[in-house]
Specification:
The protein has a single domain, classed as Nucleotidyltransferase, domain 5 (2-Layer Sandwich). It is 28% helix and 21% strand. The chain has helices spanning 79-86, 103-111, 133-146, 157-169, 175-182; strands at 16-25, 54-62, 67-74, 95-98, 114-117, 126-127, 130-131. The strands form 2 sheets. A 5-stranded mixed sheet has the order 3-2-1-4-5, sandwiched between helices. A two-stranded antiparallel sheet has the order 6-7. Strand 4, helix 2 and strand 5 form a beta-alpha-beta unit. Helix 1 (79-86) packs across helix 2 (103-111). The chain is globular, with a radius of gyration of 17 Å.
Length: 186
């Protein structure tokens, strides 16, 4: 049975849209056949920085509206992955705000979407209403919420992010509503 949280998604995001990715260390928790040597007590990545040891979770938040999340696999996000994930859900007249990752300008140019960049490496946090506070707040709430599970398997990452997205949207507030979405057949 598949959790219905992955299906409770807005069809399109409009207006000012913030996009950023967060990375979690790849985990094969519960797997009987590991494709790498086991890590003890959580462990650390084999190399510094973002690499093939990290799972990429792309999150897109429309201001005053819903959020969408996409599991982009391992390593840094690419322009092709952005096109596959964001192309169908972003309105052509939206304003996309992102960090300085090279994939975003290429994607925005190819899609014909207005794009603004925040240069976090230079210490820039905001330029008026151009900021990434909503999406970075989502990342923070998500990672704090994951602590209670003591690690999750990477193969279930999209289910957990969907669960967090539904909780943040507050569309489903009664236990009966949450239960019906949880057991909805996929």
């Amino acid at each position: 049975m598949v959790a219905g949280f992955t299906h409770e998604r807005p069809a399109r995001l409009t207006g000012t849209v913030e996009a950023d990715e967060t990375y979690l260390l790849e985990s094969q928790k519960g797997s009987r056949r590991l494709t790498r040597p086991p890590r003890r007590r959580g462990g650390v990545a084999s190399h510094r920085g973002i690499g093939r040891d990290h799972e990429c979770l792309l999150v897109v938040c429309a201001r005053g509206s819903d959020a969408l999340d996409f599991h982009c696999g391992r390593g840094p996000v690419s322009s092709a992955q952005l096109g596959q994930c964001l192309g169908p859900v972003l309105a052509p007249d939206c304003l996309l705000i992102s960090d300085g990752a090279a994939a975003y300008p290429a994607f925005a140019k190819r899609q014909g979407i207005a794009h603004e960049t925040i240069n976090l490496r230079a210490g820039e946090r905001a330029r008026g209403t151009i900021h990434l506070n909503h999406v970075n707040g989502w990342h923070s709430r998500f990672k704090r919420w994951l602590v209670r599970f003591h690690g999750i398997a990477s193969r279930y990452l999209i289910h957990y992010s969907g669960w967090r997205r539904v909780l943040d949207a507050r569309h489903l507030i009664t236990p009966a509503q949450l239960l019906s979405v949880t057991i909805k057949p996929g």
